[in-house]
Amino acid sequence: QVHLVESGGGLVHTGESLKLSCLASGYTFTDFGMSWYRQRPGKGREWAATIGPDGNVYYGVPAKGRFTISRDTAKNTVYLQMNNLETDDTGVYFCTTNNIWGQGTQVTVSS
Fold it and tell me: What is the rounded CA–CA span in Å between residue 28 and residue 103?
């Protein structure tokens, strides 16, 4: 059974950084890619980044050159490094693979 657990969210100020983690279990980690989405208050989910099973990375508009997705295959973990955060980045960040979603981690950016 696929299980995803996000962590690393918190309260930061504009310009600061956060690194989110997504710990995966229940499947062969390198068989599938992983994506990060976010949901800002009052809005739908937005795709931020994907790392493919081959390690190739892809970024959506929210990443805007400030986010970096990576993985540690030894730890079955995918990361989202977020730099130079803006108040507009506030929201819940989710990881997902194979239509399975984690519970999300809250990111709040204060000015």
Answer: 20
Whether the CB-CB separation of 102 and 4 falls below 8 Å is answered with: yes
Q: Nearest 10 degrees: CA dihedral of 90, 96, 102, 108?
A: -10
pLDDT value of residue 23 = 98
* Cross-strand bridge partners of residue 16: none
**Coil, strand, or helix at residue 30?**
helix
d(Cα 45, Cα 54) in Å, to the nearest integer?
A: 25
Local confidence band at 105 (pLDDT 50, 70, 90 cut-offs) = very high
β partners of residue 92:
39, 106
Q: Position of tokens 């100020």? A: 13
pLDDT in tens, 29-60: 999 999 999 999 999 999 999 999 999 999 99
Question: Is the model's pLDDT at 85 over the cut of 90?
Answer: yes
Question: What single-letter DSSP state applies at residue 31?
Answer: G
Distances (CA, A) of 66 to 3, 16, 31, 96, 102: 27, 11, 27, 20, 23
